Sequence to fold (1194 residues):
Amino acid sequence: MSRKWVISAATAAAALMIGFSGLGAVQAADKKLVVGFSQIGSESGWRAAETKTAKAEADKRGIDLKISDAQQKQENQIKAVRSFVAQGVDAIFIAPVVATGWDSVLKEAKEAKIPVVLLDRQIETKDPSLYMTAVTSDTVHEGRVAGEWLAKQTGGKCAVVELQGTVGSSPAINRKKGFDEIVAKNPGMKIVRTQSGDFTRAKGKEVMESFIKAENGGKGICAVYAHNDDMAVGAIQAIKEAGLKPGKDILVVSIDGVPDIFKAMSEGEANATVELTPNMAGPAYDALIAFKKDGKAPPKWIQTESALFTPDTAKAEYERRKDAY
Amino acid sequence: MTLSAPGPARNLPQYGALIAVLLANWLLFPDFFAIRLQDGRLFGSLIDVLNRGAPVALLAVGMTMVIATRGVDLSVGAVMAISGAIAATMTGAGWSLPAVLAASLAAGLLCGLWNGVLVAVLRIQPIIATLILMVAGRGIAQLVTEGQIVTFTSPALAFIGSGSFLTVPMPVVLTIVLLAVTALLVRATALGLMIEAVGINRLSSAGAGVNTPVVLVAVYVWCGLCAAVAGLIVTADIRGADANNAGLWLELDAILAVVVGGTSLLGGRFGLVLSVVGALIIQSMNTGILLSGFKPEFNLIVKAGVLLVVLLLQSPTLTLFLPRPRGARPIGTVKPPVAPTSGGAKP
Amino acid sequence: MTASTAPPSAPLLAIRGLSKAFLGVQALDGVDFTLRHGEIHALLGENGAGKSTLIKTLTGVYQRDGGTVALEGREIAPRGVEEAQRLHIGTVYQEVNLLPNLSVAENLFLGRQPMRWGLVDRGAMRRRARAVLQPYGLSVDVTAPLGRFSVATQQIIAIARAVDMSAKVLILDEPTASLDAQEVAVLFKVMRTLRSRGIGIVFVTHFLDQVYEVCDSITVLRNGRLVGERRTADLPRLDLVAMMLGRELEAAAHRIDLGPAELDSRPPLASFKGFGKARSVEPFDLDIRPGEVVALAGLLGSGRTETVRLVFGMDRADKGEATVDGRPARLRGPRDAVRLGFGFCPEDRKKEGIVGELSVRENIILALQARQGWLKPIPRRRQEEIADRFIRLLDIRTPDAERPIQLLSGGNQQKALLARWLATEPRLLILDEPTRGIDVGAHAEIIRLIERLCADGMALLVVSSELEEIVAYSRRVVVLRDRRHVAELRGGEVSVERIVAAIASETPNPIASETPNIEVRQ
Fold:
């Protein structure tokens, strides 16, 4: 600990000396916005893409982005925020690993007059003034978009099997909720089976296998709705192994927009995906720049777009995303 | 030359439970036992049970011997992830199948060697020793895949997961082969006796000249190999290595399978086939729940309930109150009470 | 010798027609047993006589098949050790059944800790623990883990616990097996005090001296049946042994006389020079020649066991060298020793000898199999032949070779361990207390066996506390004191008196200047 402290003190001293030695450099740094980003970690491909995109979008706008990887631990995130406050950054972005326990550290940021932007997830707090805005997708809306596409595609008549996410997780609950709203509006649509596939390919495949057997060899299934693309990819394999054609005999619609589902779509094995954009930082930068320029506070919630993609653009989208992920 | 512990009455709870769960599945889903050929491969719910149960059954084979030495291997799930990550990444980089398989299996052996050395040579408690790799292993797998799901298209590797041999799915074939090889290895040699001896009393065994470190290292190495094969199957099955999720929590299913199979966590007598039966009991329930259309929220509760019944049937205290089949030997087959739990009250 | 209180109407404990069978084997067949208030009652018998079964039925470990058990006239049928304890029947076993990780005080008050405000009152517990142990002459650190103390101390703590739990009937199952003479004396004092308080004590032992020293009555069992009950004063020793064995005891083992000259002319099989280990045993020289029995004598803790453990490689020597057949030998573990043709029956059979859940057969072939290596399994039929041969040869009492060895009595376990090594046809067999905890009959058999093996050219290195036994079969006796080999007696010099003299002799070692308390068992 003490050695680390010595090193950072030395670094700070060195930085100071550089600062004094060239006033021009200090002025240039003044103009450039500095943003500290406390990222959860890199537990999934989507998370890695979010980090990558945040960097790319920062470069685009000439923003100096400092990223701290919390390795799934809130204590690391709190430490990172404190260190950002100490460094006097212009704004702090947090992708919070959990919803609670942020009040005291956010108060410190507020006292230092540093605006905080939440990315991708919301927090629970009694004092909303602790953060400037939250950039997240609307997971209920994602379910709705998927449902609407399916209703339109099948003329409102479809026996759907549903692959849920991890039981009790908020995306699983909300994506089910949004989809159920559309099913309720279409009397011809029905969810015949629903089970958890734990957001993984392996479980998605296993659950789909049993759905096919339970529904008369898959003949009774019009479409599969998966709460994420990974489960859909697993389901596609199960459909193929049962001697059916995914995308034709059974329609496949899912959420997230990871590269592999675009690949499947370009091969005609999946029909639609609703993108959960990894570009959470972009809208946040824009809001921040506007705030710094004319002091206009953005709305409390910036909702990212839930765009639907279909096979006709799949190939191009796959090429575009391949490297972001 | 039995594969299981002696005493036919002792195996009744396991086989009985398996049959009961299968029958329950049949009642919930009348086509449960229906099997047909699909693209030259057996197809049906019963086949799903065998096929999906294969990874845990493989883990259980290795785990049985580790537990027989009074150890436990918590790292098998992470080893699966490592082996799968290596296989998918190397395949993606254009390596040939033999090279890929050799590298993946070698990784499993190496992981087992690491665990074995910690336990046998450095004498770290198995639960702690293997916890290290359980935590670090997934990290290693993530390093290999760079945190992504690494997919591949090689039909040769995919064959391990979804191909078939004489209409039997490959995972099932591999499990049977590995079970047979393991059984041969321990029962046609004196290794099984030494594993049991070391598990029951390491000091006495060492005093009788048994090479206890080598026996211990051997079981962990073999357990690592079994985990690597399971990892290959899972990876080949979904045509991708998911370092975050491959084999996640499967070490617990494997331990459960071994315990349901009747091998005591206190070491000693073990039954390989019974552990595989234990794995099939667990998988039959999983498949049954999926077929039944229960809400997913009930999955774990149903599972826990059935397992409780199976384990109660094996409880020495409870079996005393049940009518015993002729020839059952309560004294000979039931473990004596363990000193730490009952000893305090005796004097 | 009898209690001073007026005889109550009903005896303290009356067992009538007690029966218990296992798998059709009648372990107890209509046994009567009567324990009166303020009486020490010896329960004697050979292996398989039914002593353990009787005790376990009494303490609720087993449920009886037939017969009655009455405590002060009231019928009882305890269903477990705890219930027996509540009925004031306390038991102390030979192997201490306490928790080595807990402190002495915690062990003493386990399940009945003194409480204050819902918490364990550790201060009170420590004070009471010291008070409980005080009459036993034990001033130990009651906060230290029990496992840190010697078996003897643990044993006394176990007795203290049982006595403190207001037992009316105290069952002592071979409590003296691991105690030295001084500790035995302390125990007997406690037993006599308890007797004067009206407590009835059932005393199981293999030491006949102790029976005559402390017991009022004797009940003898044989093969699950009652042979008889006698007042100690009315039963001559020879008659007692006859009751136990059901036959006249054969004349005491006779001396074998191999002249020292002939003996020393043989080249040594194994030779140790300056062999030793820090904090275990001082460096010693020791030669062992084919066909001789070398005994190690000394008090408990004098370094006897430590010596043989070094010789077998159970502990690794840090000084000196070993030569076998004149060539330097590596002894880094038991496996090296086994390869050199050594065998070792340790003192603590349960912990270091038997593999409890394995069958008698598997236990017997284990060392042979280990030496052959796992790749060359001994065929099942050959295993059975070996097991059956030794079961017959050593008269191991077991229904069959497939019985888990832990279900055998101590003496038969010991014989099976002997069989394990004999199956390897060892050149040097090391026996640490081979007759401890073994009944009279098996005792004699084991001594005869030792002589026979030695006549066949095998070398034996024996540790024993039974000096008469040592004198009977040893050609040479190495006497140890305070972890040091202090004397070697050979041939005609070997006698109990000389061994005792060597143990008790003045020593240059200042630490041992206090006179050791010596008691020789006659």
